[in-house]
Every structure is written in structure tokens, then in C-alpha cells.
Amino acid sequence: MKRLLITIFVFLLFTAPLQAQNLDNFSNIDPLSQYSDRPAQYILGSGDILLVNVNLWGHVQRPGIYSIPSAYTLIDLISSAGGPLKTARLNDVRIVRKNQQVITIDIEEFLKTGNNELLPVLQPGDTIIVSGSIQDIFTRIVGIMRDVAIIANVFVLATRVN
What is the pTM of this model? Predict the structure, then answer.
């Protein structure tokens, strides 16, 4: 029994940090530093459609690198990625341009008004970040606290077995 408790403790000890990773924390990552001096890249797709490469990060169904038609809007891109997750904060979507300009978009306002002027034209190399909600952050913190409590409980039970 003691060996089982110690094994569970060690397992939880090493897996808890993996669950604590937060994909929204991009402050220590500079997505532009490696490619900021590269010229814009356009791709000619089938049917002579001009394609643009953009990065989509955050709270969408399928984040990743997308080659989209140059006429695509931000709504088209997010829809192509399966749409936003229920944890997405659509009033704080950020576009990071190659020139390190950051544009904040309120998609909720666009959905209310239908005003296309609220959606900037996507450019090659744009990185679109769909942030998570406060509820999602709170849920993650509670999950980490739960994992720490489980580890502490296993440790206390293991010391009582002696």
C-alpha cells in the first residue's frame, strides 16, 4: 500500500507542471524575432487565387498556420479553424503584424453591428491570437490548486502508513 501511494505521489508530482502550462502566456515568446526581416510571402493557389500565410493561436478549435485566400476576413479564418472555443474572449482578439504592430479587434462588436470596418485586412505573416476568458484562467488556477492538494494528501497518507 505504501509503495502504491508513493508511486501515485511521484506520478502526480511530475504531471502537475504539465497541466499548469498556460498557452495564453506569450510574453516570453517573440514570434517576430526570427522572421521579421523576411519579405511578405504570397502564394499562388489553384485557379490563380492569391494565398496568404497567417498564424492562428489560442482558443480556437484548430490553431495553426493557414494559407488563406487574400480576400479572407478574420471571421473567415476563425471559421476555417473550426470556430472559437467556448473559453474564447472574442472582445480581445489581437493581430500581431510583422512590423510588430499589435491590433486589438472586438469580434463581439462586429457580430452585433455587422460593420466590416471593424475587421482589418489580414496580411502575410500576421499572427492572430484569440485570448481565453477570465473564467478559463480561474478554472486553470483551481485545477492547479486541486493537483497540489492531491499531492499533499498523498504525502500525508504515505507518512501515516509508517
Answer: 0.60
